[in-house]
Each structure stands twice: as structure tokens, then as C-alpha cells.
Hints:
This protein is α/β, with parallel strands linked by helices. Helices cover 41% and strands 23% of the residues. The radius of gyration is 21 Å and the shape is globular.
Amino acid sequence: MVTEPDGGFGIYVHWPFCLAKCPYCDFNSHVRHRPVQQSDYANALVQELKHFAQLTRGRTVGSIFFGGGTPSLMEPDTVETVLEAISKEWSVATDVEISMEANPTSVEATRFAGYRAAGVNRLSVGIQALNDKDLKVLGRQHTVSEAIQAVEIARKTFSRISFDLIYARPEQTLQGWQDEINLAIDLAADHLSMYQLTIEEGTMFHRLYAAGKMKELDADTSADLYELTQEITAQRGLPAYEVSNHAVPGAECKHNLVYWRYGDYVGVGPGAHGRITKSDGVKLATSMEKHPEQWMKAVETSGTGLIEETVLTHVEQSDELALMGLRLVEGLDVRRYEELARRSFNMERLCELQANGLIEWMSNSHIRATAHGRALLNYVIAEMVS
């Protein structure tokens, strides 16, 4: 058994299929009008897991995350096959967190008990809005009543649940968002992820925006919505532990903390990314073929759909550590950053950022962005690491 490095070790499994492509989504997701042969994909995922197990022997899996796409289109047997393969290839922590993203359609909600029996112990429900008008704008396939029903089923089935909301939607008001947040907290047991809508290239929203058929919410209102989010969640007992994530203390998502604490994670499935440290200390960035069918062919041929494997330099690792760590309320581990970067921070620049109210020292070992700094995070990070 090897000692886990800072940040821990997790496994991400990507399921790339959706019932429909949401107009705001730039994730690697695909719509198929014929049933997917799930046993074939399950077997391919098992093969890819075996490939990465060879590079990460002796590691202990602390978290597993099924993302997408829409993982709740997977059959429970498919999930069970993947989890059994992971337990054969690695040691799995007794308190492992096994999360799955789910959409709140009635058909998928009936599968929740099957996922729990397969081993999933945390469900993240993609609700995105709690009014029917905006659900239609966002291209979602469910109504508010279906979402509430799915959350109620999830709460009865899983000990831990979360769900996602998107804000800064076109024409959104502060009062309307306040009502949605409070309803969300009433529904969600212990965790909420709330993301600001961004217009990403390659999406339907981007095409509408370019054609002048869609307007983004103005920057001032978007900033006010962010501040309102922080205020209400803190008052209601779900303070932010990361820029976009809020939880009852102790209910933070373990898997996402692996990312933000710059741990290691194996990424399998079409379009998945990973960060793994080999036994010789070399850290690799991995990327999989995005197209599902081409990924399948690659796995059949070589045991993995890997299309890129890059050795990360110490500077690249320290930059990634800062990019992730400063998103966290707990802040960035200065000692670890300086060991990776092989240089010290520019103290003059840190003092200037501190004087401007953008960063603060948590202790001699951690720096974090202030509430104001988190709203200007890209600027803060660029200044700190340059």
C-alpha cells in the first residue's frame, strides 16, 4: 500500500449519452436515437479501468463519480459492473463516496433504488431551475413538479443528495432567484451546486447570442445574484466551501474536493480527463477520445481510448494547484505550492492583493481569496502565479 499524496485519489466515469442536448451545454454529450448497447460500453469501461490500474497500483480509492452526459440513463447493472471492476483493481476506502449525476425525469427516478443497490451512495440531481418558464428556456426535459418528486424519491433512497441550479439566466430577477434558492434549500438535504450561466462556444445559446436573438444578463445584476447566493446559503446553514458549491459542514462533495485539492483521479469513458501520479513521481494529464463509437473502437484495439498523455512540469502542476485551490474557502496550501513551483511567492504582489482586499492569510500555511476576491478569481490567480 502506498501513502496517498495530498488531495486523495478518485475515479471519474463518463457516460456521454443524453436524451437531448441542452442549449447551454458544452460538455461531451451525445444523443443517440437507437438504444445504446450498455453491456458493450460497460465492458469497454472495465478494460480502460484495467489500463489505468496498472499505472496506479497500491492506491486507495476515496471517491467515485459517474458524470456525463446523463449517467442516470445507465442501467443499474451497468453501474454495478463498473463498481465491481474498480473494487477488483484497487483498494476501496470503507467510507468511499460514490456519486452519480441524475436527471429528474420520472423514468430515471424509478431507477434510483437500483443505483443504491449497485453501490451508489450519493445522488446529484440536475434540476437547473425551479420555475417552468426557465426550464423550457434551458431546454430541460422535466417540470418543476417532476424535479421535486425526483428529489423526494432521492432523499428516501440515498443518505446524501445534492442538486444543481443555474443562475444569471436571461431576465432573471433578484426576488425570483431568492425564492428559488430558499425552495432549493428546503428540498436539498445537505448540498447545492449553483453555477452562473455562461455562453459557451459551440452551443445553441452561443449561436442565438451571435445572431442577436439572445441577451446575457447584465454584469451588475449577475454580480448581485452571486452576492445574494452567498448571503442566503450562509444564513440557511449551507455556506460556500468552493466558489459554486455550498454544503452543510461535513457534507462537502469528496470527489470534487479531490479536484480542488489537486489530488489524483483516473478518468475513463469518452472525453474523460485525468491527473495521475506514477510510482516514479511523474504526474500525467490524460485525455480520452470524445466520440463514443470511436472511443469504443480504440478500447477494443488497445485497451484504452487515450488520445493524449502529457507529462506535467512542476510549473504546470503548481499553476493547476493554484487554479484549483483558490476556489476553495479553505484556501491554497502555500507550502505545497512552493514545493511544486520550486520558487517562493512574490511577497510584494501578495501584499498588494491583500491590501486591495482580494486575498487573506488563513494561517502561515494557507492563503485564500476573500469574498470580493472570489468574484474576481481569474485576476487574483493570474496575479499570484505570474
